[in-house]
């Protein structure tokens, strides 16, 4: 098993492949509210504990009320969101939180560091995950473990992100699972 990889599930085919591995957790992306119950039942049969990306559940509001519903109904290991209110609600409900940030320039970096320090998520997911310098700076300035995600397609990119201080890597590239 590769403990530093969090498989990112975008489709039924991704889920089918995951169920043939020995991973214990994953990140559910691009889910449709109508399929969520079936997906969660299947995941439960395999004793997987998923992180659910609230912002990417189609057909559901992306707010703290949706977060509360998801946590109470499906009991995921944790919640992923770009929204501070959602992260605060998930923390209050006792699940692991992953605050996802997109770093496109120095202003976005500064603003993200401020938000991370204010809401204190369990993890911060930095996109793009190939931004080695940003991973290191966010971890050093906030003390929050970093998850590198986005645009990671090779073992070398995984190694660079890990050497820069990433605790985990999220990737939907099944060849890296």
Characteristics of this structure?
eight-stranded parallel β-barrel, TIM Barrel, globular, RNA binding, transcription regulation, 10 strands, alpha/beta
Layout of secondary structure:
Elements: E1 5-9, H1 12-18, E2 25-28, E3 31-32, H2 33-45, E4 49-53, E5 57-58, H3 64-74, E6 78-81, H4 84-92, E7 96-102, H5 106-119, E8 123-127, H6 132-142, E9 146-149, H7 155-163, E10 166-171
Parallel strand pairs: 1-2, 1-10, 2-4, 3-5, 4-6, 6-7, 7-8, 8-9, 9-10
Helix pairs in contact: 3-4, 5-6
CATH class: Alpha Beta
Q: Low-confidence spans: pLDDT under 50, at least 5 residues?
A: none
Q: If strands are numbered along the chain, what order do they take across the biggest sheet?
A: 1-2-4-6-7-8-9-10
CATH architecture: Alpha-Beta Barrel
Q: What number of domains? A: 1
Helix amount: 40-55%
**CATH H-level superfamily:** Aldolase class I
Instruction: Characterize the main sheet.
Output: 8 strands, parallel, barrel
Number of separate helices = 7
Helix/strand structural class: alpha/beta
Beta-sheet strand percentage? 15-25%
Count of individual beta strands: 10
InterPro entries: Aldolase_TIM (IPR013785), GlpP (IPR006699)
GO molecular function: RNA binding; transcription antitermination factor activity, RNA binding
Keywords: Glycerol metabolism, RNA-binding, Transcription, Transcription regulation
GO biological process, one term: glycerol metabolic process
């Amino acid at each position: 098993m590769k403990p530093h990889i969090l498989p990112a599930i975008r489709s039924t085919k991704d889920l089918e492949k995951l169920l043939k591995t020995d991973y214990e957790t994953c990140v559910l992306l691009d889910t449709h509210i109508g399929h969520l119950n079936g997906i969660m039942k299947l995941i439960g049969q395999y004793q997987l504990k998923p992180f659910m990306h609230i912002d990417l559940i189609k057909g559901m509001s992306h707010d703290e009320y949706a977060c509360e519903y998801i946590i109470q109904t499906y009991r995921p290991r944790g919640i992923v969101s770009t929204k501070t209110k959602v992260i605060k609600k998930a923390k209050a409900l006792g699940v692991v939180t992953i605050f996802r940030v997109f770093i496109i320039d120095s202003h976005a970096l500064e603003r993200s560091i401020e938000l991370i320090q204010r809401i204190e998520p369990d993890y911060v997911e930095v996109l793009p995950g190939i931004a080695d310098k940003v991973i290191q700076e966010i971890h050093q300035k906030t003390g929050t473990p970093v998850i590198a995600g986005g645009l990671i397609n090779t073992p070398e990119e995984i190694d660079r992100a890990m050497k820069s201080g990433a605790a985990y890597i999220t990737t939907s590239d099944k060849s890296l699972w």
